[in-house]
Specification:
By secondary structure, the protein is α/β, with parallel strands linked by helices. The longest helix has 20 residues. The chain starts with a strand and ends with a helix.
Length: 378
């Protein structure tokens, strides 16, 4: 079997959930001796992507750079550029000598399905479907409206598409996905992340919270900042932010630290291992890799009940917030965590639950579905 993996970015060139998913998907397909052509837009001379794969994997991997189009800035310019990128991918792949499967991340399937809505060997994964989730404000509502244009085209035309589970499967069918076109395959992490941690931090000194992610309005950083400002001096906790948070947005307080972007997964593991709770207060999400990574390192989780988050988080390993009232829910959860005598149990439960989201297992589910649904392809 040969797969063409289409993505709008791949880790470590680009930091993000879908980009890390593309990286792990390529790696684990190659580990299973499946040839993968990875089409991505980034060429960075400071990073040699081959250093992130072992020789046995590289025998089955090829990386093809398709530059992401540059367009003038106007409302919806990213969507137009995504269309052009999908068209460039379409023109690059010789469909007369097609691979067994085209696995299209995000909007990369758009032009393919517009040109050929009966393309049976294409599987789409739109990931978080954030454009169909909670609207924060009028600007966000307009952004979502524009993003639904390519999303609906892909959902309606795809003969096979992946849902990460939870609320996302229902979103696909509500937006007219074809009957039985959706397969549920969760996000996952490499089993090298798994921990048997038993020596948890002593929270009698300070509860340690961590946030990992880029600065984006839907991530709920403003709401988290507001809670910190209102409670950091009265409650016994500290917070670390990992990711590109603009300096002008940062809180100046001795118990709040901003570590910037960190590419080294071992450094991320160290931070998570020494934290008590991962905070993910987003208004919309898919199935964040960072939550699974935090769970493997023994973190309890405070997260919003959106997307497929409830597949990972429940009362046994954390707190689920309502998207309509994040600040209040987050404040209550932090108060409860500080007072809780069961925090170590929640953290251990996270480790056990994370074992359900390993790539070695998930990739077999994907391969099985690809083989079943591509047997009639020529």
């Amino acid at each position: 079997m040969k797969i063409s993996l289409l993505t709008n970015g791949i880790y470590p060139y680009v930091i993000g959930g879908m980009q890390k998913h593309s990286f792990n998907l390529a790696k684990h397909l190659a580990k299973n001796k499946i040839h993968v052509d990875v089409y991505h837009p980034t060429s960075n001379n400071d990073i040699n992507i081959e250093n992130y794969f072992v020789d046995e994997e590289l025998d089955y991997l090829s990386f093809i750079v398709i530059p992401f189009p540059k367009t003038p800035k106007f409302p919806g310019h990213y969507i137009y550029a995504s269309y052009l990128y999908s068209k460039a991918l379409y023109n690059k792949i010789d469909l007369t000598e097609a691979p067994n499967v085209i696995y299209a991340q995000g909007f990369t399937a758009w032009y393919f399905l517009k040109k050929n809505p009966f393309l049976n060997n294409l599987i789409s994964n739109l990931h978080g479907l954030e454009m169909f989730q909670y609207s924060i404000n009028l600007k966000n509502k307009l952004e979502q409206f524009l993003l639904r244009i390519p999303a609906k085209t892909i959902i309606k035309n795809a003969n096979l598409q992946v849902s990460l589970g939870g609320k996302l499967t229902n979103i696909l069918y509500l937006n007219k996905a074809k009957n039985n076109s959706v397969i549920e395959i969760p996000n996952a992490i490499d089993d090298s992340w798994l921990s048997n941690k038993v020596d948890f931090n002593d929270t009698s000194e300070k509860l340690k919270l961590v946030f990992i992610g880029r600065y984006e309005r839907r991530k709920g950083i403003e709401e988290f900042h507001n809670v910190i400002k209102n409670t950091i001096d009265s409650l016994n906790y500290e917070v670390q932010f990992v990711g590109p948070i603009p300096k002008e947005k940062q809180i100046k307080h001795h118990n709040v630290k901003y570590l910037g972007t960190i590419h080294d997964s071992n450094e991320i593991k160290k931070i998570l291992y020494n934290s008590d709770i991962m905070v993910c207060p987003s208004f919309s999400e898919g199935m964040p890799t960072v939550i699974i990574e935090a769970m493997t390192c023994g973190c309890a989780i405070i997260a919003t009940d959106v997307g497929a988050v409830s597949e990972m988080v429940d009362k046994n390993n954390g707190w689920l917030l309502k998207a309509s009232n994040i600040e209040t829910g987050l404040s209550i959860a932090i108060h409860e965590a500080i007072k809780s005598s069961q925090l170590d149990k929640l953290k251990q439960n996270s480790i056990e639950k994370a074992k359900n989201f390993q790539w070695d297992c998930v990739i077999q589910t994907l391969i099985k579905n690809l083989l079943i649904d591509t047997t009639s392809l020529s």
